[in-house]
Structure to design on (570 residues):
């Protein structure tokens, strides 16, 4: 018991130190320290947006598991992980903005035609529903309205986010309509990964369904690769460049971690299969975010000479390599620390409360 | 009144006068250009050629940057211009991702912290102009609003030595720009994207 307490305090202190360092690094970027982020015209979104879509996938997957997998004894944990992942995803967006003090402008008045507003709206709704679901699960109650509402919103959120990317006319790297299906399938996979990490081998059904979702993801990836290889359209060029150019190692490593290693590990080491999925998911989201503006000038054609751009493997000019700065890395690690700390605190509080209730029940009996 | 521009690529020599005029007029920070010139090699030796394209905000009538802006900071002014309210811009960079012409940029560093060259001290004029640039907000052509208010031409068109840039009122059939667009059968760039730019081009790139 004492050892557990010491372990928890240790986790708390480490996470708080990492988070404090992250806040400091973020503040440097926010006050405009040169080099605090590596973003610009040809790489408008980077590590923070990758983390946003990564945490969002975890949130959606975990909440869907909490909603639909009613036999599981880990529903409460999944709901907690889902809610905290929504907050982490939101924090990743905050870290990415140039003017946090003006954030209120998103709501007053909102621009309804903006997919970003749609995303903010659905994220807020899913956080509210997710918290209500968590409270219900803690109290061992079931409200159909909350459960179904959370499930519906969780299914809509990745589609709304995918729409945010695919609807941008200026970014051919995101224009494939497969992105909508990929986002949803990856979110489902992330949900199973979180379940495997928390519950290890809870049941054979989970493992089998996990393999089914993996296969669906593999088919979608094959579809994307085939489209890039066989399509004669310029829109397929960024995907082709991603597979063969400077980010190829990250791209293929992401797919191996996301889709192949978990198949090998699922029987013997399910927890590690889950970790592999999440690591692969992070890399896959990262390469996806960079793919959008990878070839900034597809339409004017080949043989362009633009200062700062370099020749890619496809014969088109590609954006300069985006390598996150140490400030961006520190902020990102802090987001993971926040996730671990918040999850640990909520689980500990709920455990303590339940123990207190059980104790008082015993005394009154 | 609907402002618009014609860019005649057959006349453009790629001298960069428009880029410099824009920079002087608007005092944009290091590495931020509201007006670009792209170069491209065509053909093979001995028939190789260098083509140029002068590029700045297209001030689209169906602007992707306006549509995606979550705060409404990027807006139509009703006279054919797409402008930015820096007080509303939260620096989400959706507009950078959305623009098919790769025009908007983000002001990431204050100009006083990032001089044009090492040891450069800003002139009094530069100090005044740089106040119009807010760190963490969008940067793009505003069609020289101060000049338009005084009834003057935009800086890039005024500086062009070959008159490849012509600016004026598209709604006025007697304006130079409207006449030349009609005569030369000028077309907007990437017309298939339905962004309806108010900048028209003549010549191939």
């Amino acid at each position: 018991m004492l050892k557990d307490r010491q372990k928890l305090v240790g986790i708390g202190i480490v996470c708080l130190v990492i988070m404090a360092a992250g806040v400091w690094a973020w503040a440097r970027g926010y006050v405009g320290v040169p080099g605090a982020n590596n973003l610009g015209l040809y790489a408008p979104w980077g590590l923070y947006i990758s983390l946003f879509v990564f945490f969002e996938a975890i949130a959606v997957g975990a909440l869907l598991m909490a909603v639909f997998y009613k036999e599981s004894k880990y529903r409460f944990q999944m709901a907690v992980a889902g809610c905290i992942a929504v907050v982490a995803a939101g924090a990743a967006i905050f870290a990415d903005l140039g003017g946090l003090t003006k954030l209120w402008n998103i709501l007053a008045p909102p621009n309804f035609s903006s997919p970003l507003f749609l995303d903010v709206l659905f994220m807020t709704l899913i956080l509210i529903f997710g918290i209500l679901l968590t409270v219900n699960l803690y109290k061992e109650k079931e409200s159909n309205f909350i459960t179904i509402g959370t499930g519906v919103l969780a299914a809509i959120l990745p589609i709304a986010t995918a729409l945010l990317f695919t609807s941008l006319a200026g970014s051919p790297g995101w224009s494939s309509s497969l992105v909508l299906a990929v986002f949803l399938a990856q979110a489902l996979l992330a949900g199973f990964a979180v379940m495997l990490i928390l519950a290890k081998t809870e049941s054979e059904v989970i493992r089998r369904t996990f393999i089914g979702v993996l296969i669906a993801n593999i088919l979608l990836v094959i579809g994307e690769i085939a489209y890039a290889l066989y399509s004669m359209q310029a829109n397929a060029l960024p995907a082709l460049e991603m597979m063969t150019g400077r980010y190829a190692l990250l791209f293929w490593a992401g797919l191996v971690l996301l889709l192949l290693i978990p198949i090998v590990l699922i029987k013997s080491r399910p927890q590690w299969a889950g970790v592999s999925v999440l690591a692969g998911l992070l890399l896959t989201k990262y390469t996806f975010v960079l793919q959008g503006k990878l070839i900034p000038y597809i339409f004017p054609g080949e043989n362009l000479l633009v200062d700062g751009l370099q020749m890619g493997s496809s014969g088109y000019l590609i954006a300069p390599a985006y390598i996150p700065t140490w400030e961006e890395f520190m902020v990102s690690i802090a987001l993971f620390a926040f996730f671990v700390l918040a999850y640990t605190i909520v689980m500990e509080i709920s455990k303590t409360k339940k123990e207190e209730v059980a104790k008082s029940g015993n005394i009154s009996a | 009144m609907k402002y618009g521009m014609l860019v005649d690529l057959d006349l453009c020599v790629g001298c960069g006068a428009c880029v410099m005029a824009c920079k002087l007029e608007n005092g944009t920070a290091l590495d931020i250009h509201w007006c670009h010139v792209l170069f491209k090699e065509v053909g093979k030796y001995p028939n190789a050629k260098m083509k140029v394209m002068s590029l700045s905000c297209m001030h689209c009538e169906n602007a992707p940057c306006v549509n995606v802006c979550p705060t409404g900071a990027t807006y139509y002014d009703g006279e054919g211009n797409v402008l930015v309210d820096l007080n509303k811009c939260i620096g989400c960079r959706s507009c950078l991702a959305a623009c098919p012409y790769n025009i908007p940029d983000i002001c990431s560093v204050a100009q006083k912290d990032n001089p044009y060259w090492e040891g450069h001290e800003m002139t009094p004029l530069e100090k005044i102009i740089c106040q119009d640039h807010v760190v963490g907000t969008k940067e793009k052509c505003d069609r020289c609003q101060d000049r338009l208010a005084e009834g003057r031409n935009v800086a890039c068109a005024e500086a062009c030595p070959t008159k490849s840039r012509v600016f004026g009122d598209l709604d006025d059939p007697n304006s130079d720009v409207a006449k030349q667009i009609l005569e030369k059968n000028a077309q907007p760039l990437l017309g298939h994207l339905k962004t309806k730019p108010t900048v028209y081009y003549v010549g191939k790139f």
User: Anything to note?
Assistant: Chain B is about 20% helix and 20% strand. Strands of chain B lie at 3-8, 35-42, 49-56, 74-76, 82-84, 105-107, 137-139, 165-169, 199-202.
